[in-house]
Specification:
By secondary structure, the chain is an all-alpha fold. The chain has one domain (7-104). It is 75% helix and 0% strand. α1 (7-29) runs antiparallel to α2 (33-56). It is rod-shaped. The model has no long low-confidence stretch (mean pLDDT 85).
Amino acid sequence: MGKNYTKEQLVQDLTKWRSISEQELDALKQKDLSKLNTLIDESAPIQMALNQGLSEIDPAHINNNDIKIMKKIQNVQEIIIKEVQTGASLLKKRIQKLRQNKTSLKGYKRQRLTTPRFLNKTS
């Protein structure tokens, strides 16, 4: 990036990230995990560029419109996190139920009846 990260690049990157974040949320709601993974991979370089660029840019160049875009991104990211947490919680409950069912099935297995063994004792 260097020292030439401009205001236009900042706005462009913020707008791209907002757009991708909204697409991620849609993919998550549609349960399209492959699309979600692709979008996450697409947004990672933008986030890294923003992270480096925001440290280089003069804070005076950040206006209210930029802050509104950042807040929108934050809101979308919070929704994504809540959706993922909800999905993880549901998955955890399903796994617990499967474990219970597996344990219950093991309890229903019949033991083989073993016939008593008689030993011949010869002296």
